[in-house]
């Protein structure tokens, strides 16, 4: 018979301190696996040795699936199985230390105790607790030996995401907020709503001891494809009926909205949103995770380690074929062992929640071992060929004639893809370059050998590819070279000044007809609106270099710019009697600045004023101004303030109050949006004192 619940003391504060779970705002006990915790319960006078403790999780707990365990008192703690050790007992109360195995299933458990006395036994429910992964414990698959890394990749709620282009890397702050109220419960519901769980709940729960399995499942659940997951992707440039992907400043609002709407996908996300939300969920569950930005990232849709881009004779970038090269792409790395592959493949594993290609019939990607990617071991699970191509694919640029359907190779490049691969430093707000962990240096024989190895493993070496350029096409040498140089500032609200530099590489004169275009694009380089076009004919003397200034006025691009603030300029140069030359550059414009000042000293539980100042830099009025502010331990949720319209050159000052809840260095994230400037972001470090 089940008795009423005796009053249980979970020692929540002390246990949380020991288990690095103090940042969760919860009255429920949250502990990590493979480590002991203490509980005291009252109302039992019988001798201790008659206790049997029962822990159970999931829909049909059983010993066979390791979702149920029954264990008595033992003399020492075990990390191989569930165990309980008597700490102390006094009149009517017993203190017990309980420990789970290193490889226990994570999630919410029920704990009950069965006591036998005089031949009759009774069972009392003690309540529930949540068990998480334990990167501080050497027996756990997610163990990290550096405590500084555990603090950054599990406990840190602020992150920096890198974006822009490889020639101008920009960054913005993000509030992961994995310890905000209610987020842990939402993460547990995400697991329970996956396709894997719906198809076979018992097996799904029994696999939740494995970070490899959970990483893959969660990479599919963070996007809405297939399974009504958390975020709906939108790369159209039009975001009606939802929030523009560049406007989010943290994961908390997204996860809370998903739950509040009855688990309807939140509109809208692009790659960094998927990666940031996955970081929040995995850090919350205790798997060390970070975001990674890859510049000039290939999306190789047909798996031939080659991306093809097509241009017409006027220099317009054509959307032909499914391959593309993104200015940047953000994915995740999570840290765990790969017992399925062997020790050298353990460590950082790539997961990608952005829905790009199906894997095993659904939109999920990874975990792919970073070491396997670097060594070209593309036959190792999971999704290595796709990730290998993202950082290594060869680029082919074609001229396509829509009238005849004929395509001509302009040039091919094997060093274009996968540059300046970036992540936030441990314990500092700086960028760290991890390109060398993904590939050997471009231009070295080792790098080409790995590429050949990957092609061979994928069976591409022996197969005739009718779409590939011929050796003769590849060997054609251009007579001229060209590049776009930036002259002056690259700021939204100002004219864009560029210089096209053309150089004759030959010792005889060349006549060149140049067709130029500028298009506003998404960060994926998807063309959205034509902004400008022009054509010139020039004669270059032997070995001569000429410069042609180009001005694209603000009023020409203002209406057509996307919220990614990216413009692609292209010049296709038709050289008389020679091969065509393609010159292109993706330009990400900077927003004007906003200034954030904390007025006075920030103290725990005391109000402090913050002032945000924005000056309208253009000579027309800006309207629909909204300021959005968030920051862990500084304010709850997201604060939204509407600001009156600003005339030309007018300055606005907005003040609001914070009440910090914890001491230390905290990050305040600010996003300013109006009709002329989309999502001006900044963050301010606030030093909160006790």
UniProtKB/TrEMBL annotation:
Active site positions, chain numbering: 271, 329, 352
UniProt cofactor note: Binds 1 Ca(2+) ion per subunit.
Keyword annotations of the record: Acyltransferase, Calcium, Metal-binding, Transferase
Cofactor: Ca(2+)
InterPro entries for the chain: Ig-like_fold, Ig_E-set, Papain-like_cys_pep_sf, Transglutaminase, Transglutaminase-like, Transglutaminase-like_sf, Transglutaminase_animal, Transglutaminase_AS
Entry annotated with the keyword Transferase: yes
Protein's name in the database: protein-glutamine gamma-glutamyltransferase
Organism annotation: Smithornis capensis
């Amino acid at each position: 018979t089940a008795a009423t619940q005796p009053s249980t003391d979970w020692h929540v504060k002390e246990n949380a301190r020991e288990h690095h779970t103090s940042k969760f705002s919860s009255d429920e006990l949250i502990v990590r696996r493979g480590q002991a915790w203490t509980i005291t319960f009252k109302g039992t006078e019988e001798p201790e040795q008659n206790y049997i403790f029962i822990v159970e999780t999931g829909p049909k707990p059983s010993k066979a699936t390791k979702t149920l365990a029954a264990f008595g008192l033992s003399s020492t703690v075990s990390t191989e199985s569930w165990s309980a050790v008597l700490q102390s007992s006094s009149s009517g109360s017993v203190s017990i230390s309980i420990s789970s195995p290193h490889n226990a299933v994570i999630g919410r458990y029920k704990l009950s105790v069965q006591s036998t006395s005089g031949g009759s036994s009774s069972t009392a429910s003690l309540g529930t607790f949540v068990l998480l992964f334990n990167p501080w414990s050497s027996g756990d698959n997610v163990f990290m030996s550096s405590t500084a890394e555990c603090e950054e990749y599990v406990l840190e709620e602020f992150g920096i995401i890198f974006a822009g282009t490889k020639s101008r890397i920009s960054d913005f702050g993000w509030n992961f907020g994995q310890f905000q109220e209610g987020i842990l419960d939402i993460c547990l519901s995400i697991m329970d709503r996956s396709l894997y769980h719906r198809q076979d709940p018992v097996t799904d729960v029994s696999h939740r001891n494995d970070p490899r399995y959970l990483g893959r499942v969660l990479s599919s659940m963070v996007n809405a494809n297939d399974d009504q997951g958390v975020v709906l992707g939108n790369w159209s440039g039009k975001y009606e009926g939802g929030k523009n992907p560049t406007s989010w400043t943290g994961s908390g609002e997204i996860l809370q909205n998903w739950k509040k709407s009855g688990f309807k996908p939140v509109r809208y996300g692009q790659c960094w949103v998927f990666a940031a939300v996955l970081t929040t969920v995995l850090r919350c569950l205790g798997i060390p995770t970070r975001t990674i930005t890859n510049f000039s990232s290939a999306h190789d849709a047909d798996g031939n380690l080659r991306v093809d881009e097509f241009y017409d004779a006027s220099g317009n970038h054509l959307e032909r074929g499914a391959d593309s090269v993104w200015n940047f792409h953000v994915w995740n790395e999570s840290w765990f062992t790969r017992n399925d592959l062997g020790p050298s493949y353990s460590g950082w594993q790539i997961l990608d929640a952005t829905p790009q290609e199906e894997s095993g019939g659904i939109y999920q990607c990874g975990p792919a071992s970073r070491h396997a990617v670097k060594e070209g071991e593309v036959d190792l699970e999971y999704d290595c060929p796709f990730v290998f191509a993202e950082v290594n694919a060869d680029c082919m640029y074609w001229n396509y004639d829509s009238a005849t359907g004929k395509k001509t190779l302009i040039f091919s490049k094997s060093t274009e893809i996968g540059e300046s691969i970036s992540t936030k430093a441990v314990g500092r707000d700086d960028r760290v370059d991890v390109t060398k962990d993904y590939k050997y240096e471009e231009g070295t024989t080792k790098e080409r050998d790995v590429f050949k190895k990957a092609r061979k493993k994928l069976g591409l070496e022996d197969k005739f590819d009718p779409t590939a350029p011929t050796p003769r096409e590849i060997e054609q040498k251009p007579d001229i070279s060209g590049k776009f140089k930036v002259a002056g500032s690259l700021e939204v609200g100002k004219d864009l000044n560029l210089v096209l530099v053309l150089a004759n590489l030959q010792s005889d004169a060349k006549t060149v007809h140049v067709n130029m275009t500028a298009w506003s694009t998404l960060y994926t380089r998807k063309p959205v609106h034509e902004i400008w076009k022009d054509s010139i004919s020039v004669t270059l003397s032997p070995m001569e270099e000429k410069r042609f200034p180009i001005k694209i006025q603000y009023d020409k691009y203002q209406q057509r710019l996307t919220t990614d603030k990216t413009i692609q300029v292209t010049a296709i140069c038709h050289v008389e009697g020679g091969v065509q030359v393609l010159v292109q550059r993706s330009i990400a414009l900077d927003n004007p600045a906003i200034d954030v000042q904390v007025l006075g000293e920030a103290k725990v539980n005391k109000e402090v004023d913050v002032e945000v100042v924005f000056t309208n830099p253009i000579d027309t009025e800006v309207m629909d101004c909204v300021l959005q502010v968030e920051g862990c331990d500084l304010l709850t949720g997201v604060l939204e303030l509407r600001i009156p319209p600003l005339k030309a050159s007018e300055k606005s000052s907005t003040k609001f109050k914070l009440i910090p809840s914890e001491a230390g260095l905290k990050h305040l994230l600010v996003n300013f949006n109006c009709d002329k400037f989309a999502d001006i972001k900044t963050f301010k470090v606030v030093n909160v004192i006790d």
